[in-house]
Amino acid sequence: MIQLTHVSKLYGRVIGVNDMHCRLPAGPYGLIGPNGSGKTTLINLLTGQLRPTMGQVRVFGTDPAKHRGVLRRIGLCPATDVLYPNVTAKDWVRFLVRLHGFSVQDAHSRSETALERVGLKDSMDRPMGDYSLGMRQRAKLAQAIAHDPELLILDEPYNGLDPLGRYEMTELLKAWTAQGRSLLFAGHVLHEIESITRSFLLIHGGRLLASGTADEIDSIVAETPQEVELIGPDVGRLVSRLAEHPSVSRLNLRVDTHSLKIGVKDPASLFGRLTTWIADDGLRIDQFNTADGDLSAMFAALLRRHRGELS
Amino acid sequence: MNPVDTAKIPGGVSRFLSAGTMLDVVRFELTRSMTASRIAIWCVLVLFPVMIIGLLRVQITVEQIDPWGLATYFLIPEVLCLLGLLLWATPAVSTELEGQTWIHLAMRPGGRTTVLLGKYVTAVAWTFSAAVVSLTVCTILIGNAAGVSFWLVLAGLALLSCVAHGALYVLIGVLFYRRTMVAAVIYTLVVEFGLSFVPAVVNRLTINYRLRGLLAEGTDWRGVRSLAEATLGIEPMHHHLIALTLVTTTFLAAAAWRVRAAEFPTQADGGA
Q1: Residue among B266, B160, B118 nearest A42 (CA)
Q2: Strands of A259-264's sheet, edge to edge?
Q3: Is the Cβ pair A99, B111 closer than 8 Å?
């Protein structure tokens, strides 16, 4: 479905996507990365809005920047808001379906069906200026699915949705993937994407740091040298034990904040020992922060691994 | 898969966007345009030539049609039409980019070109409607000396002005989408109102030169004739019409090519 061959995208001297190389067969994928990591640049490359500075992008075997006909097979729900205050959702979606080349009648029925599907049946005739952010988000999703694409690309689709809206969106996307359709869901909140797909692409600094299932990513993270932090009144009592452990590369104790930062080469081997020491000595540790809980730390660790700075 | 393989394209889809699709763009744009501020701008455009002609009419009686014709020509096909098109044709792409709605249009296979041409037609229709209403009221104010031929000549020139200048501004809008209005205003002042009055070959490259030449050929107004002889040169009417057709087609084709090939900024990463 998607093939990236050493794709790089430069904006002048700034790099948006850096030597990305992967092949994704049809299916649902989560594209995870912090803001500014290159997710939207990648999406723009996949939809032909940008051309790669180097490398080759193929979607359904076609270069989307050259052969725009392939866009009929892709639906995009971008992160940005819709700003047509005096246009109804029905008119907007119908107009966009018409631009795909469907007949007037077809565009009419497809737009209504899509709006019903996203739960805007009762408000589709209201101007979008009266909509809440969540309703506009649904209208955006409706225009992305109305032409029945094979691949749906969503960029931060939960922006502005309340818990009920998030639940409904999740259910809709689950139904979408259950039909065997492909999905690329870009976001920066792991658990939101995890409820829809178990296949992930981790992107940071324009680089594809890791890809695979959630378990595979977990094992990569577990094997990746990283920094963990312990907070609590007794953290100082762990220093002597930690200093002797072979997988500990550095220690940084701050007495004033009762925090101990530990550089770990092999987290999996240390964590088992750490819990034993805490229990045996009856230490009080209030917080144990790992890269798993802090996405930016996890990305930083993966980036260092990707660069070969950590073995 | 062959890049143009249509086997996977959803059923009922035409591979070629029809005139009907472009009309849908026009309809959609007109619906969007029905806001209080846009209607107010349209009214101001209609009223300012009417106010000027009305004030002149209160003070001066119509003895000869020439000065009134020249004044109306300057006010409507040159000023009103250019102002209207500056407001509606120039920001065709930039407003969508600023509103971050361009991505939705660009995600349709022929969306970029169709939307651009549809917006061009909308800008021409919107501006020409203001020109026609304003011209009609001005003709009534001038009185019997004006007549139907006066209205027809100026309405024709207003239409040609809208069509040719609209294409020019759409091209400027596509080329300079970040500083659209500044680029269009500078071009208008320097080229259309500056160079067009220079009695040299260079003024033949301007749209206003052609429109003024048509005015001179299409009327027997002495003032226009002497202006033509002094700055415009004497060329047959069909030369001007051919030149305007070529200019319009070239500008539109260049704008369509550019909008199709350009990498426009779409959205910030993460929607920020």
Answers
A1: B266
A2: A248-254, A259-264, A226-231, A287-289
A3: yes
Cβ of B267 and A78 within 8 Å?
A: yes
Radius of gyration of chain B (CA): 21
Whole-prediction pTM = 0.81
Highest mean pLDDT among A73-77, A177-181, A229-233: A73-77
DSSP-derived pairing of the beta strands A259-264 and A226-231: antiparallel
Task: Give the Cβ contact number of residue B175 at 10 Å.
Answer: 15
| Alpha-carbon gap: A289 to the closest alpha carbon of chain B (Å) | 26
Q: Answer yes or no: is pLDDT of A306 > 60.
A: yes
B266 contacts A84? CB cut-off 8 A: no
Structure ipTM: 0.81
Cβ pair A84:B32 closer than 8 A: yes
In terms of phi and psi (left: phi > 0; alpha: psi -120 to 50; beta: otherwise), the region of A38 is left
Surface of A (67-86) touching B: CB under 8 A? 67-76, 78-84, 86
Q: What are phi and psi of A4, to 5 degrees?
A: -110, 125
Say how far apart CA A14 and CA A31 lie, in whole Å: 21
Is residue A126 within 8 A of residue A91, CB to CB? The reply is no
Q: Would you tell me which residues 105-144 of chain A have a C-beta closer than 8 angstroms to some C-beta of chain B? A: 106, 140, 143
User: Does the CB of A41 have a partner CB in chain B at under 8 Å?
Assistant: yes
49-108 in chain B: CB under 8 A from chain A: 99-101, 103-108
Would the CB atoms of B115 and A99 count as touching at under 8 Å?
A: yes
- CB < 8 Å to B105, chain A: 96, 99
State residue A287's pLDDT score. Answer: 84
Q: Report the residue from A50, A70, A106 with minimal CB separation from B12.
A: A106
DSSP string, chain B: --TT--TTSPTTB-SS--HHHHHHHHHHHHHHH-SHHHHHHHHHHHHHHHHHHHHHHHHS--S-HHHHHHHHHIIIIIIIHHHHHHHHTGGGTHHHHHTT-HHHHHTSTTHHHHHHHHHHHHHHHHHHHHHHHHHHHHHHHH-TTTHHHHHHHHHHHHHHHHHHHHHHHHHHHHHTSSSHHHHHHHHIIIIITTGGGSSSGGGGGSHHHHHHHHHHHH---HHHHHHIIIII----HHHHHHHHHHHHHHHHHHHHHHHHH-------GGG-
Q: Is the confidence at residue B87, as pLDDT, over 50?
A: yes
Q: What is the mean pLDDT of residues B3-8?
A: 40
Inspect the interface and report whether the beta carbons of B100 and A103 lie closer than 8 Å: no
pLDDT (0 to 100) of residue B156: 95
